[in-house]
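FYI - complex with magnesium ion, inputs then prediction.
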Amino acid sequence: MERTLSIIKPDGVGKNIIGEVIRRFETNGIKIAAMKMIHLTKPQAEGFYAVHKERPFFGSLTDFMTSGPIVVMVLQGEDVIAKNRKLMGATNFKEAEEGTIRKEFATDIEKNVVHGSDAPETAAFEIGYFFNDLEIQNR
Ligand code: ATP
Ligand code: MG
């Protein structure tokens, strides 16, 4: 059993595909263990993406992530980190596999609909950034 953090980014919420994204998780055997909708402040977005603070796209990315509400979820299941990344597709939607969330719905390398943790250590940090233990179900 593994956990990962998923975010439906402001572009995904704006396109009314919250249900579509969650349906893909549920039909692929992934459990939603926690979920909420929030609107990040700039410092909160900068803290979340601190690993990218030296990257040229950091300012633009954190502006985008604060441009509207997001849905943050803890996903749970066997090998869920890799499973979620596979459902999401490559960061750049142009390189994403057919049938992935980003291939179907992303419009831009930045506005790519979803976020997913990339390793157990980042998942632990990212889940803790948004949720405390009492907010996470253990089904
Ligand atoms: P995420 O962390 O959101 O799940 P990822 O792990 O596929 O995506 P990262 O390399 O961690 O990609 O980049 C974080 C986010 O920064 C990307 O999802 C995208 O929104 C944005 N990003 C990444 N590379 C670029 C780029 N070259 N130009 C603009 N934005 C970018
Ligand atoms: Mg990443």
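The longest helix spans residues 120-130. The first strand starts at residue 2 and ends at 8.
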